[in-house]
Each structure stands twice: as C-alpha cells, then as structure tokens.
C-alpha cells in the first residue's frame, strides 16, 4: 500500500489538520459554543449592529453562564475550570459571530471575575463569583480613563481613606458592560499605590452613562464609569495586590482570548469570501476560478490558519504555566493585524456587496478596528516585544 493511500483527504475548512490537536472534550466545547452562536446571535446580529444595541444582554449572559462560558478557565465558585485551549476555542466561536459577544464574555471572565478570583478575599469570591459565573450578575472592569489609556500609571481616579471606609472619585471610559453591570472592578490611585476595588454599581455616587454614536462594536454595551465620592467599606479593596501588576495581569488574560477571538472574525470573513467566490459570476464563470481571486484566498487561508496554530501553541503554554506576557503580546499583535487584513481582502472579493450587512465582512472589519487598539495598542505590543528583544525600554 502506498503512503499516499493512507492520507486523510484535504479539508478546505481545516487545511493544516488542526482539529487533530483537539481531544473529544475540546471539540464538544467548541461545537456547543458554535451551535449557540448560530442560534442565538447570527440571525439577529446584523440588526443589533445596525441599531447600535444589544437587546436581551442579561438573558444572553444567563445563557452563556449556563454553558459555563463565563469565567470559563477559572476553577471553583461555579466556574467551569476549563483549559486555556478550551477557553480560546470558545472565544474564537463567539467572535466568529461578533466581537461584541466575545467582548461581553472576555470582560466578564478574564477581567472582572479574574481580578476577584486571583486577588480577592474569600468573602469577595463567595459574594460575587458564583453569581457572575451563572450570568446573574454582569461585571465590568474600570482601568482606562479619558486622558490615560496606554499609560494607566498616570490614572487620576483616586481612593482616599475616611475612617474605616474608602471614598472613590474619578472617571473611567470605554468600559464594556458598564451600563448593565451589577459590579465593577475599579482601579484607583491610593497613598499605598494603585489598588483595585470591588464596587457594587448601585452604590450612591456611582453612574455609568452609555457611550453612543460608535461605528465599531455596535452590538456591545460601552460606557463611562463616573465615581463621585463613592463610599465603600474597608473590605471593598482587593487585598492580594498593590500596583499595576494587578490590572496588567488581568489584561494579559483577556488579551489571550483576543488572540483566539480575532481569528474567529477572520474565519467568518474568509468563509464568506470563499462562498461568494464560488457562486458570483463575472465574464461567464465564477470569480473563484480566476487566478487573482485564488491568490487572495490562498494568502488569506495561510494567515488564518497560521494564526489559529499560534493561538493553539500559546494556549498549550498557558495550560502548562509557561506563557509569558511578551508571548501574549506576540499573539495579539500578529493575529489582530492579520485578521484585519483578511477582512479587508474579503471585502475586495465581495466587491460592493462587501459593505452590506447581508454579509458579515464589513461588520467584522469595523469591529476589529476596536480590537486592534483595546487592551493594548499595536504600538504598545511592539514596544513590549522590542524591550524583550533588545533589553532596552523605549516606553519613556
């Protein structure tokens, strides 16, 4: 028998055979999230995007909680305790539907819940994590400020002691989930350094006006957080961390999800381009039969599946406890940048139809413009890698 007769057939949807890296549980989780997104997001997301709303977000959160998708890679307190790869697969499938849905899950699990899980007291964990894991309570994460995005060390939000209490004052902006959150993890300057606070959003002096007129992440709730002398008890502070290492470690966890999620957006656009190229006829035959179109599709497939392979590699390293923040920067920088290029190339294949909401391409392309800069801009990740490569700090 020849060696070629034992080879599996070429799968256009998985040209590198990456499914061979997954076990049955991995595949089951991926397929469950994919089916949920196909039923609960894809039929409606174009309308949500057009109206700039995410109706039923609380119901969606409870459904995601029932699937174990909230705080998915955390253990205990009602969390699923899934592997990093399984969490990544979920992020990919969610963002293949829409970046706003993946952002809802990332902010809930990788930022707000992760902060409480890693740095919170036993009481804070028991109070918040089970309800957040189930989707009963939505969380948000307040770090970015109107004048301080890439430089959080210069934040102005301040917490001062008043007797046994803390009094929190300041503003945060571009906060996913803010207007619907029941709890906010807010980072603030104190006399002791930067500290994190667990803030119930019904606290007097706290408000979260929603940000409107966005042209990206329109199927997502984005808000400001305004703290006007919000009085908090002594035990509102996260006790296990002081300094920027707290919020930055949370961001690393969330950025890991973006490494996977961005490839979901890219995959959706690539699949739309392939389907369109097979059926759209010009000059008497499908445009997929022309060399220039095939060249575009081949290049898109190469970058898409290289990006997914990179995400797998980083996930295995995270599961082994060997993933460094610089490696996450490597993944976010590459995968988001390539995802945007894949979406733009898909738009050229679809021509004028590429800007229509009947197809997912322009929606994903505009969403990825936000993903490119949130949780670390291109420039910040380039400088993280530059410092790691040269040993020289170019940030200041």
UniProtKB/TrEMBL annotation:
- Top-level taxon of origin: Bacteria
A Pfam family cross-referenced in the UniProt record is Acyl-CoA_dh_1
Q: Which cofactor does it need?
A: FAD
Ranges where the Acyl-CoA dehydrogenase/oxidase N-terminal domain occurs:
24-136
User: Sorted alphabetically, which keywords does the UniProt record give?
Assistant: FAD, Flavoprotein, Oxidoreductase, Transit peptide
- Domain (Acyl-CoA dehydrogenase/oxidase C-terminal) spans 243-389
Chain ranges of the Acyl-CoA oxidase/dehydrogenase middle domain: 140-230
Any one Gene Ontology biological process term? fatty-acyl-CoA biosynthetic process
The UniProt entry, under InterPro entries, shows: Acyl-CoA_Oxase/DH_mid-dom, Acyl-CoA_Oxase/DH_mid-dom_sf, AcylCo_DH-like_C, AcylCo_DH/oxidase_C, AcylCoA_DH/ox_N, AcylCoA_DH/ox_N_sf, AcylCoA_DH/oxidase_NM_dom_sf, Glutaryl-CoA_DH_mitochondrial
Instruction: Identify a single GO molecular function assigned to this protein.
Output: flavin adenine dinucleotide binding
Q: Does the keyword Oxidoreductase apply?
A: yes
Q: Which PANTHER family match?
A: GLUTARYL-COA DEHYDROGENASE, MITOCHONDRIAL
- Which family is this sequence assigned to? Belongs to the acyl-CoA dehydrogenase family.
Could you tell me what this protein is called?
Acyl-CoA dehydrogenase
Which species? Answer: Streptomyces phyllanthi
């Amino acid at each position: 028998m020849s060696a070629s007769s034992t080879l599996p057939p070429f799968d256009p949807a998985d040209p590198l055979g990456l499914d061979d890296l997954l076990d049955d549980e991995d595949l089951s989780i991926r397929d469950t999230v994919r089916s949920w997104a196909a039923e609960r997001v894809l039929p409606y997301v174009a309308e949500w995007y057009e109206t700039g709303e995410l109706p039923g977000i609380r119901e969606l959160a409870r459904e995601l909680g029932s699937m174990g998708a909230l705080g998915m890679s955390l253990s205990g307190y009602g969390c699923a305790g899934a592997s990093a790869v399984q969490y990544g697969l979920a992020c990919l499938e969610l963002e293949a539907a829409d970046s706003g849905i993946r952002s809802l899950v990332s902010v809930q699990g990788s930022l707000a819940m992760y902060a409480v899980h890693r740095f919170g007291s036993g009481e804070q964990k028991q109070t918040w994590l089970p309800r957040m894991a189930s989707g009963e309570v939505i969380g948000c994460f307040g770090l970015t400020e109107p004048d301080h995005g890439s430089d959080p060390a210069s934040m102005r939000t301040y917490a001062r002691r008043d007797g046994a209490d803390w009094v929190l004052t300041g503003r945060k902006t571009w906060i996913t989930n803010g207007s619907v959150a029941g709890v906010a993890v807010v980072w603030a300057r104190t006399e002791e350094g930067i500290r994190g606070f667990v803030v119930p959003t019904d606290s007097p002096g706290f408000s979260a006006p929603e940000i409107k007129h966005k042209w990206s992440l329109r199927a997502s709730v984005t808000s400001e957080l305004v703290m006007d002398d919000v009085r908090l008890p002594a035990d509102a502070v996260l006790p296990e961390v002081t300094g920027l290492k707290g919020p930055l470690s949370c961001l690393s966890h969330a950025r890991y999800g973006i490494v996977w999620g961005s490839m979901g957006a890219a995959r959706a656009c690539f699949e739309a381009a392939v389907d369109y190229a097979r059926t759209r006829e010009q000059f008497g035959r499908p445009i997929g039969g022309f060399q220039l179109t095939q060249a575009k599709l081949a290049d898109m497939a190469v970058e898409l599946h290289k990006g997914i392979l990179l995400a797998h590699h980083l996930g295995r390293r995270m599961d082994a406890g060997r993933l460094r923040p610089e490696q996450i920067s490597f993944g976010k920088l590459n995968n988001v940048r390539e995802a945007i290029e894949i979406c733009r190339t898909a738009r050229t294949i679809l021509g004028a139809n590429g800007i229509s909401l009947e197809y997912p391409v322009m929606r994903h392309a505009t969403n990825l413009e936000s993903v490119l800069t949130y949780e670390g801009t291109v420039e910040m990740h380039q400088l993280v890698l530059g410092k790691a490569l040269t040993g020289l700090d170019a940030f200041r």
